[in-house]
C-alpha cells in the first residue's frame, strides 16, 4: 500500500510530480539539498494551485487538502526512511542518480519501491545502484506534469510484475493514463520526439525556414499540439542535447545532435528557463505569445 511518496529533486519535473501526487491524495515530501530551490518549488506549486482555482480545474477544498499533503525537506536520509515510494527526479546524469540511489537504498524501508523519472536512461542500470532491482522501475512523466496526461512506465530487466502493477496504479491515482513497456534506449516517446526535434534543428541550420514557420508547419500539418522549437524551449535545450548524446551512443548515427543545437547550448540558450532558447523570452509580450 502506497501512502507516503518522496520526490527527490525540486526542479520542473520534481515539483510537477509532487503536485499531481498531492492532488491524487498521497502524502508527498519534496527533497532537495538546496533550500532556495525548495522555496522556489513551493512558490511554483502555489502558482499552479492558484491558476487551477482561477480556471476551475480544481476546487478550493481539493486544493487545500492537496496543500496539506505536501511538505518540503532537505534531508534525504530522513525522508527516505519514512517513504513507501521514492521517485527520483534529478538531472539526467548517471553520477547524480547513482548518489541518490545509494543513499535511498541505505535508508529506505525494505518494502519501499524506487522509481526514476527518466526519458532515456536504463532503469536496469539505475537499479544496479541499489539492491532491490525487483522493486525498481522508470516513470517517465512529461512536462508540464500537471497538464500532460501520460506516464510512460518502463520495466527494467528484473522489475517484478507486482512493482509494475503498483506503479501503474499510483500513476492512475495521480490522474494519468499509462503505458507499460519494456526497456530499450529512448523508450517510445523520447525516440520519436528526439528525432523530430533534432531534424527541426537541421532544417533551421540549412535555412529551410524560420523557427516560427517550421513550428507552424509541424503543428498544422501533422497536428502536433506544440512545434518542435516551442517544445525544446519548454523542456530545455541542454536536456534535449543530453538525451540525443545518449541515444546517439546507444542507437547510432540517426541521433547525432545537430551542430546548431550544440551551438545554442554552448551559448547558454537553454530555453524558457534561461530567458532565451530558439525563441527570446526576455520580452514579456513575446513570453505571453509563446
Automatic annotation (TrEMBL):
Family annotation (SUPFAM superfamilies): 6-phosphogluconate dehydrogenase C-terminal domain-like (SSF48179), NAD(P)-binding Rossmann-fold domains (SSF51735)
The protein's annotated pathway: Lipid metabolism; butanoate metabolism
Domain of life: Bacteria
Key words of the record: Oxidoreductase
Pfam families: 3HCDH (PF00725), 3HCDH_N (PF02737)
Domain annotation 3-hydroxyacyl-CoA dehydrogenase C-terminal: ranges: 186-281
UniProt domain 3-hydroxyacyl-CoA dehydrogenase NAD binding: residue ranges: 5-183
InterPro entries named among the record's database cross-references: 3-OHacyl-CoA_DH, 3-OHacyl-CoA_DH_NAD-bd, 3HC_DH_C, 6-PGluconate_DH-like_C_sf, 6PGD_dom2, NAD(P)-bd_dom_sf
Gene3D superfamilies: N-(1-d-carboxylethyl)-l-norvaline Dehydrogenase, domain 2, NAD(P)-binding Rossmann-like Domain
Statement: the UniProt record of this protein carries the keyword Oxidoreductase: yes
PANTHER family: 3-HYDROXYACYL-COA DEHYDROGENASE FAMILY PROTEIN, 3-HYDROXYBUTYRYL-COA DEHYDROGENASE
Family: Belongs to the 3-hydroxyacyl-CoA dehydrogenase family.
Name of the featured protein: 3-hydroxybutyryl-CoA dehydrogenase
Biological source species: Bacillus badius
Amino acid at each position: 500500500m502506497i501512502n507516503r511518496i518522496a520526490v527527490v529533486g525540486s526542479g520542473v519535473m520534481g515539483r510537477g510530480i509532487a503536485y499531481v501526487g498531492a492532488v491524487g491524495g498521497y502524502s508527498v515530501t519534496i527533497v532537495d539539498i538546496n533550500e532556495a530551490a525548495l522555496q522556489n518549488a513551493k512558490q511554483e506549486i502555489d502558482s499552479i494551485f492558484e491558476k487551477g482555482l482561477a480556471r476551475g480545474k480544481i476546487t478550493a477544498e481539493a486544493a487545500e487538502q492537496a496543500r496539506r499533503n505536501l511538505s518540503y525537506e532537505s534531508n534525504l536520509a530522513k525522508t527516505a526512511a519514512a517513504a513507501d515510494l521514492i521517485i527520483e527526479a534529478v538531472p539526467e546524469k548517471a553520477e547524480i542518480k547513482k548518489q541518490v540511489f545509494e543513499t535511498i537504498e541505505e535508508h529506505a524501508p525494505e518494502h519501499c519501491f524506487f522509481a526514476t523519472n527518466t526519458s532515456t536512461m536504463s532503469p536496469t542500470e539505475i537499479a544496479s545502484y541499489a539492491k532491490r532491482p525487483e522493486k525498481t522501475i522508470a516513470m517517465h512523466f512529461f512536462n508540464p506534469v500537471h497538464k500532460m496526461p501520460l506516464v510512460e512506465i518502463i520495466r527494467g530487466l528484473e522489475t517484478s510484475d507486482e512493482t509494475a502493477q503498483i506503479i501503474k496504479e499510483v500513476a492512475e491515482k495521480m490522474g494519468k493514463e499509462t503505458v507499460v513497456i519494456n526497456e530499450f534506449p529512448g523508450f517510445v516517446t523520447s525516440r520519436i520526439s528526439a528525432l523530430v526535434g533534432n531534424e527541426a534543428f537541421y532544417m533551421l541550420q540549412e535555412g529551410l525556414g524560420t523557427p516560427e514557420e517550421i513550428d507552424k508547419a509541424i503543428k498544422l500539418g501533422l497536428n502536433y499540439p506544440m512545434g518542435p522549437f516551442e517544445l525544446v524551449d519548454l523542456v530545455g535545450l541542454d536536456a534535449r542535447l543530453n538525451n540525443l548524446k545518449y541515444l546517439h551512443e546507444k542507437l547510432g548515427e540517426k541521433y547525432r545532435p545537430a551542430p546548431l543545437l550544440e551551438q545554442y547550448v554552448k551559448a547558454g540558450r537553454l530555453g524558457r528557463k534561461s530567458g532565451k532558447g530558439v525563441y527570446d523570452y526576455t520580452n514579456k509580450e513575446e513570453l505571453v505569445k509563446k
